[in-house]
């Protein structure tokens, strides 16, 4: 146990020296499970994914149709507001930007924000530029396997830091909703579940924007 602790601290110090651990964060070698409420059931026959709001035409996809979309992999460091950081996490799923590039959705000029709608009424909000950036993904897989129910199966939003990409904004990990069912594009910002409870709306990990 002592050797494991020493190895973790050495790795943490290395990542801090590389600028990969934000202020107030500590390295974890586990993947903690944090959410509010029960884990919802999933029925692939009735599940659908919707995109609506400030788009030219609403898009609705079944689970089978969603899994036929072009896929991508994303390697990111993730940072939780509860002060743990996990480097080099590998995700697989669908890039929102690819939906625009393929013509599946067309945004209106008024689309400036996105509200992620998840099971049980949970929501998470982000500016549209983050949702369309390289470090945001609609993820179905983690580390080569389907996401576990506790971590958002069958679909969750994920956002984190790509090593070397200082041009990308990095919010805390709660800004990617578990058990995701849709994206609503908005002209005006609308606070998500945790933001309404007092969490910081911007949630920049490098500025330690945890609470309002």
TrEMBL record:
Residues 1-13 have a biased composition (Basic and acidic residues). Residues 1-26 are annotated as: Disordered. Residues 37-194 form the Oxidoreductase molybdopterin-binding domain. SUPFAM superfamilies: Oxidoreductase molybdopterin-binding domain. It comes from the Bacteria. Pfam families: Oxidored_molyb. This is Oxidoreductase. It comes from Leptolinea tardivitalis.
